[in-house]
Design a protein that fits this description.
Largest sheet: 7 strands, mixed
Low-confidence stretches: 38-49
Distance between the termini: 32 Å
Strand order of the largest sheet: 3-12-11-10-13-5-4
Shape: globular
Structural class: alpha/beta
Helix content: 40-55%
């Protein structure tokens, strides 16, 4: 790329001069960037209610999920152990931490959204929540349901026929489509998932097996989303789940903050100004990690440090925030090729909703990029040390603790807790999972 090339009105040298990390992004080099320095912003300096958000809205989302819990327990037996609440364990990652040289291995925790019930990924939070919110809204507006009802009534023929008169659509690289397809089909909605042709075949097959319409596009994820949005807008009885700009989706993810706070408290883990929490979140378009980060911010304020982790070849959120172009930027504008094995993170542009929330609302945010080979290495290393099997995109956050330990003063991390959010893998076929682990082992062996 020529230094004189104009990108959104500026020469590349101007972009790099203003924000040097852009040079690393263009070169697809691993990077770590804090917008204003890792400790520069405090909660009092932020706009907490930006984009209409508030802790009260997150609480309303949590209450809605509680209302649906009896229905979910009935329809999805795997949720019965937790009374219909879709939640994942928080476990020690000490064995992995020892292998990567973390000074205090006991400080590392793993959040197992890779094993969430119903759809086996973090998308079981936001995706399922948004469809439930849509179903509730339709049923209440039609006078068929009240908030005081036992929501198990939604499983009756009356309601499946009612929901059958409506449809749900989504653009997805796979995991969001699975969560939307599973819950929408259970309720009775007609469902269409718009996917890029190179999305994992097993995900397409699984969706079609549920009766979901899968439409494939030769373009990338963004092309599938754009076409899905156009088709949905033409049908007033179709609800489009917009991964790039959905407040409901965001709130579904944000409920995780309260639940993690309870899990940490039950383990006597303190989070405050003297005991910061660093959370490493794999990031694609940004809805899942953005919602989780906001939920944690509601609980812990500026004691939480969310680190958004992206593939070196698809750093759309880092680029969107660093250039302040938000959803207007496409990584290919900067000649970044979007080629990564982390298909769930291969997004050309970030969610404008999330990128602005990160820029305006949540303090102490960091952005990290990781090479594909390190995704595979950590996939294999996690399997070896902790016996956990995850897909490569879910391993992005595992690079975080060691990188942060190298970058920040030891005294600032002396009392820190680290949490890697593992985002998917439980639904991956065994043979494909074996190939991920084997590739990682080969890379580790050759190091």
């Amino acid at each position: 790329m020529s230094n004189c090339t104009q990108i959104h009105g500026k020469a590349i040298d101007e972009w790099i001069s203003a924000t040097p990390v852009i040079a690393d992004l263009i070169n697809s080099s691993e990077s770590l960037w804090f917008p204003s320095g890792p400790q520069a912003t405090t909660a009092s300096e932020t706009t907490v209610h930006a984009r209409g958000l508030s802790p009260e809205l997150v609480q309303e989302a949590s209450d809605r999920l509680d209302r649906f819990a009896p229905y979910l327990a009935q329809q999805f037996p795997e949720t019965q152990e937790n009374d219909g609440i879709i939640e994942s364990p928080l476990v020690s990652g000490a064995a992995f931490a020892r292998r990567v040289g973390l000074e205090d291995p006991s400080s590392l925790y793993l959040k197992l959204d890779s094993h969430l019930p119903v759809s086996g990924s973090i998308k079981a939070r936001g995706g399922i929540y948004e469809v439930l919110a849509y179903a509730e809204r339709l049923a209440i507006e039609a006078g068929r349901l009240s908030y005081d009802d036992d929501y198990r009534v939604l499983a009756t023929e009356e309601f499946t026929e009612f929901f059958g008169g409506y449809s749900v659509a989504v653009g997805s690289t796979g995991n969001l489509g699975l969560s939307i397809g599973i819950i929408s089909a259970a309720l009775g909605f007609s469902v269409t998932v718009h996917m890029s042709a190179d999305a994992r075949q097993w995900k397409k097959d699984m969706l079609r097996g549920l009766g979901v319409i899968v439409r494939e596009y030769e373009g990338d994820y963004a092309a599938a989303v754009a076409q899905g949005r156009i088709e949905a807008q033409a049908d007033p009885r179709c609800h489009f789940v917009d991964d790039e700009d959905s407040l409901d989706l965001f709130l579904g993810y944000a409920v995780a903050g309260k639940r993690v706070a309870e899990q940490l408290a039950s383990g006597s883990v303190v989070v405050d100004a003297l005991h910061p929490l660093y959370v490493y979140l794999p990031c694609g378009v940004g809805g899942g990690p953005g919602g989780v980060a906001y939920g944690l911010f509601c609980e812990f304020g500026d004691a939480v440090h969310p680190i958004f982790v992206e593939p070196t070849h698809a750093p759309c959120m880092t680029l969107g925030v660093s250039t302040q172009l938000h959803e207007s930027v496409d990584v290919r504008d900067f000649n970044i090729d979007l080629t990564t094995a982390a298909d769930g993170l291969a997004c050309p542009s970030p969610s404008g909703l999330v990128s602005r929330i990160l820029a305006e609302t949540i303090p102490n945010v960091g952005f990290l990029t990781v090479d594909d080979d390190n995704l595979f290495r950590n996939t294999a290393l996690l399997n070896e040390t902790e016996g956990l099997r995850i897909e490569p995109s879910a391993a992005a956050g595992l690079a975080g603790p060691a990188r942060i330990a190298e970058a920040l003063p030891a005294e600032s991390l002396a009392n820190a807790t680290h949490m890697c959010w593992l985002t998917g893998g439980a639904m991956v076929p065994e043979a494909e999972m074996d190939s991920y682990v084997d590739k990682g082992k080969s890379l580790l062996h050759n190091d």
